[in-house]
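Intended use. Records like the one below are meant for learning the mapping from a protein sequence to its folded structure. Do not use them to infer anything beyond what is encoded.
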Amino acid sequence: MLPNIPLKRIDGSAENLQDYAGKVLLIVNVASHCGFTSQYRDLQNLYTANQAKGLEILGFPCNQFGAQEPGTAGEIANFCSSKFGVTFPMFEKIEVNGDGTHPLYTYLKEQAPGILGTTGIKWNFTKFLVSKDGQSITRLASADGASKMEEVIQKLL
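Structure written out for the chain above:
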């Protein structure tokens, strides 16, 4: 079961992680000026192909890695929709490491530590895949592209 974690959409509307219960979730810390930014296209394609089957992709802008997400909420939303046609849910800019870590990322990092048990997020576009029942959480690296994501997602759908 998913925990009760408040979330705020990029447009300011309130949600809760529990609103996504029963869905396969792909949660990604994103940035508009990163070498991996082209992954927005792959993420949108995955979303388009699998949303009806129960996939939700949740994008969380983060400016902690090389200051690669400096924009305002409006600028980020406009960039994602105009450049990559993003229709999956985007959320307010958050921190994924350090004292200001968003509770969602505290939870995800505890449930799916990285290599050698490290918990810190290493870079933009780190992905967490959460099963429909919320019991299985897998961490995927920034460099893991569409083929790797598709393979793991299909097993969970």
